[in-house]
């Protein structure tokens, strides 16, 4: 499997995990809404679920959206790259 194929496979796995997590959290919110817990209990659990969802999904999304590094560390930048800003 080529490097690009591996990268695409990992991306697809991450996207699949995100979809599964979204389904799990949607079902959890529906279950919570159907319970007779009162406003305070529902509010607390909803907040916890939202925080949990964000902590579970955000790192996966950030990794998908991360830019691809196209040169090895220590390798000189291409001549078309802009020089760093001077302080």
Spatial separation of the terminal alpha carbons: 45 Å
- What's the number of domains? 1
What's the pLDDT, averaged over the residues? 82
Low-confidence stretches: none
Could you state the order of secondary-structure elements as H and E?
HH
Shape: elongated
Our count of helices gives 2
Q: What does the main sheet amount to?
A: none
Using only C-alpha atoms, the radius of gyration works out to 21 Å
Q: Total strand count, please?
A: 0
Structural class of the secondary structure composition? mainly alpha
- Percent of residues in helices comes to 55-70%
Q: In percent, how much strand structure appears in the residues? A: under 5%
Give a verbal description of the structure.
The chain has one domain. The chain is an all-alpha fold. The chain contains two helices and no strands. The mean pLDDT is 82.
Describe how the helices and strands are arranged.
Elements: H1 3-34, H2 38-65
Summary, kept brief:
This protein is mostly helical. It contains two helices and no strands.
Q: Which features does this protein show?
A:
mainly alpha, 2 helices, 0% strand
